[in-house]
Design a protein that fits this description.
The complex is a heterodimer of chains A (about 325) and B (about 325).
Chain A: E1 4-15, E2 18-30, E3 35-39, H1 46-53, E4 63-70, E5 73-74, H2 80-86, E6 91-94, H3 98-101, H4 108-119, H5 124-137, H6 143-147, H7 156-168, E7 174-178, H8 186-202, E8 206-211, H9 214-220, E9 223-228, E10 231-237, H10 238-243, H11 248-255, H12 295-299, E11 305-306, E12 312-313
Parallel strand pairs in A: 3-8, 3-9, 6-7, 7-8
Antiparallel strand pairs in A: 1-2, 1-4, 4-5, 9-10, 10-12, 11-12
Helix pairs in contact in A: 4-5, 4-7, 7-8
Chain B: E1 3-18, E2 23-39, E3 43-47, H1 54-61, E4 69-74, E5 77-78, H2 84-90, E6 94-97, H3 111-122, H4 128-141, H5 146-149, H6 158-170, E7 176-180, H7 188-205, E8 208-213, H8 216-222, E9 225-230, E10 233-239, H9 243-246, H10 250-258, H11 298-302, E11 308-309, E12 315-316, H12 322-325
Parallel strand pairs in B: 3-8, 3-9, 6-7, 7-8
Antiparallel strand pairs in B: 1-2, 1-4, 4-5, 9-10, 10-12, 11-12
The chains are: A alpha/beta (about 325), B alpha/beta (about 325).
């Protein structure tokens, strides 16, 4: 049984008395110990998916539909109080920007301890010792000293490790990380990503990784969900998605990425822009930019089809592996 | 191919003030004795992590910052010795596209007005209709239409703004353009559009580019040669097409190894570098990379390596370049 199952998830907001749906038709499942990646461009609904799973969108007035099943329980029908007992201790969340998610006026160690004491019944001293141990495991040099420091005294890479420690400290079953390495330099990104993988494997944590970087997905994840304009367009094992993408968007996106040793002039681009939520086109939202689009794509919204095992694709004319 | 730009021993450092009396308590070396040349029609890339001096170097070449020493020759004349008036005329030939398209345009000006500013500043006499036509031509050249000219920056998408920014840089028919991370704020599909646009413009207008980026894959794809910088110094200059095979500075190799390729079968299993870029505040003697280098020797802490020719036609600043070790 999958540890997390998301079925036909959507989020609805009311803006100027009009209903808008920045997120629709998201279905995926995640098995215990798996690393699942979600990739997409700006405004594709990646972060919103994470917030919806954590039940955070209802706090800002969003209406969530569909179902999010965690260990057999539907999270969407739980009360806020019940949700609080799951957040952090069962499903932890690492927000996008480590620079702004730490409180500048508290010592970083105390910030981790605070979270741990909220989630687990544990004494302050014991919690402190656990946090210092964890910081050491995250290869933070001189963990005892860093524990006493304020966020501005730490480098970007160290701050990111502190935020990871916050997510890991209560031994959650699922860790959702939203663009954890976007603000970091490449050499530091490589260190942090490998550390992430090592820590989640050692503790049998399922990792839900959100990123715009297909390279990170290819290197770290087992499965990938591709998002476009608030819809999930493709889902599958990374080996299959990268070697024979089924959705034309996934294929085009992979061809947009420059690589070392690539021949000059061979880079492909997708024409046009990603539509924003108030300009979503009719039918398939990718059709104005798609080379395979026809009149059917303009009129009818494609459903997220299940094909072979876990793979899913939302396209009227999806690419066959034999193509 | 002649040399369009020749940079010699360029250096700049900034004083850091502190304490009660705001005395100078140290210096930050932003660019340290940098020498290189750019050939006419070439795309030269500059790559490095944050704080390595890439953007400062760009500003020095355009003399937006005054260096402590060194020279920048453009077609044989040193622009650092020019008077203000000469420099202004010189700037027609050298333009810049900035990193953040969201702040590079005045939010209260329409695109038309922003694009007509270079003509006013340079005193180019063009009457209203001719100027309007010229700007429409420029917008079309970068893949926009005249309607976009009436828009304000906030009405355009990031990619459209970056196109407008490129159009502005092209307005005075420059020979040389510095592109400072022009795609860093854009999504990959839009980044690819802008790169293709720049490829086309270079071909049509016979431009020379200095392309600054933190993305080594992008630089190696787009450029002819690549300068690798670390803490204000050039550590290696290498042919872009052969960077995977011929790069021999340990830092360049580490940068290459840090790239997450979009090929799931080729997994990165080991971090290539430990630690982070040290502070540029009061640099110790010796090689700038010595504190993180896996192949460090006692000599590296004592003597600063200088750029030397490699057998593959590049240049490397390392006492023990990797082609000698292997």
């Amino acid at each position: 049984m999958p540890i997390l199952e998301v079925n036909d998830l959507h989020v609805e907001f009311i803006v100027d008395k009009k209903k808008i749906r920045p997120l629709e038709r998201v279905s995926l499942e995640m098995n215990s110990g798996e690393v699942l990646g979600m990739v997409g461009e700006t405004g594709s609904g990646k972060s919103l998916t994470a917030h919806a799973i954590m039940g955070l969108t209802s706090l800002v007035g969003g209406e969530i539909g569909g179902s999010v099943t965690f260990e057999g329980k539907d999270l969407l029908v739980l009360s806020e109080k019940e949700m609080q007992s799951i957040r952090g201790s069962q499903i932890a969340f690492i927000p996008q920007n480590p620079m702004t998610s730490l409180d500048p006026v508290y010592r970083v160690g105390d910030q981790i301890v605070e979270g741990l004491c909220k989630q687990v019944k544990i004494g302050k001293q014991q919690a402190k010792q656990q946090v210092i141990d964890l910081m050491g495991k995250l290869r933070i040099p001189k963990a005892k000293q860093v524990f006493q420091q304020y966020p501005h005294q730490l480098s970007g890479g160290l701050k990111q490790r502190i935020v990871i420690a916050m997510g890991l400290c209560a031994h959650p079953k699922i860790l959702i990380a939203d663009e954890p390495t976007t603000a970091l330099d490449v050499t530091v990104q490589a260190q942090i990503m490998l550390l992430f993988k090592e820590m989640t494997m050692a503790r049998n944590i399922s990792l839900f990784l959100i990123t715009h970087d297909l390279g990170v997905i290819a290197q770290v994840c087992d499965k990938v969900a591709v998002m476009y304009a608030g819809n999930m367009v493709e889902f599958g094992r990374i080996g299959e998605v990268f070697s024979s993408p089924r959705h034309p968007y996934t294929k085009a996106l992979l061809q947009c990425i420059p690589r070392i040793g690539m021949e000059k002039g061979s880079l492909a681009a997708i024409s046009g822009n990603v539509p924003s939520v108030d300009t979503y086109p009719s039918g398939c939202r990718y059709h104005p930019r798609c080379s395979r689009a026809d009149s059917l794509c303009k009129k009818t919204i494609p459903t997220l089809l299940k094909i072979e095992g876990d793979s899913r694709v939302a396209c009227h004319h999806y690419l066959d592996n034999k193509d | 191919m002649g040399k369009l730009i020749e940079v010699k021993d360029l250096a700049v450092s900034f004083d850091v003030k502190g304490g009660l009396l705001l005395r100078t308590i140290g210096t930050v070396t932003a660019v340290n004795n940098v020498s290189f040349s750019i050939n006419t029609g070439e795309i030269l890339g500059v790559v490095g992590e944050s704080g390595c001096g890439k953007s400062t170097l760009a500003r020095l070449i355009l003399r937006l910052i005054e260096p402590n020493r060194g020279s920048v020759e453009f077609n044989g004349t040193d622009i650092l010795k020019m008077s203000k008036k000469q420099l202004r005329l010189q700037r027609r030939h050298m333009q810049m596209v900035f990193q953040d398209p969201y702040s590079a345009m005045d939010p209260r000006y329409t695109i038309f007005r922003s694009l007509s500013e270079p003509y006013q500043i340079q005193g180019v006499k063009l009457d209203g209709e001719d100027r309007h036509q010229k700007i429409v031509d420029l917008l079309e050249l970068v893949g926009l239409s005249s309607e976009h000219g009436y828009a304000y920056p906030h009405e355009l998408s990031g990619g459209q703004k970056q196109r407008a920014d490129i159009a502005r840089a092209l307005s005075l028919n420059p020979e040389f353009i510095i592109l400072d991370e022009p795609t860093a704020a854009l999504d990959v599909s839009v980044q690819a559009q802008i790169i293709k646009l720049l490829e086309g413009l270079r071909e049509r207008l016979k431009l020379t580019f200095l392309f600054i980026s933190h993305d080594l894959s992008l630089v190696s794809y787009f450029c002819d040669r690549v300068i690798v910088m670390y803490l204000g110094s050039i550590v290696e200059i290498v042919d872009a097409d052969l960077i995977g095979e011929t790069a021999c500075h340990p830092y360049t190799r580490a940068l290459i190894a840090s790239i997450f390729e979009t090929v799931p079968e080729q997994k990165n299993t080991q971090a290539s570098l430990e630690g982070e870029v040290p502070s540029p505040f009061n640099l110790p003697p010796g090689c700038v990379f010595s504190s993180r280098c896996k192949f460090v020797q006692p000599l590296c802490h004592e003597q600063t390596p200088v750029l030397e020719e490699t057998p593959d036609g590049g240049q490397v600043a390392c006492h023990f370049p990797l082609h000698e070790i292997s």
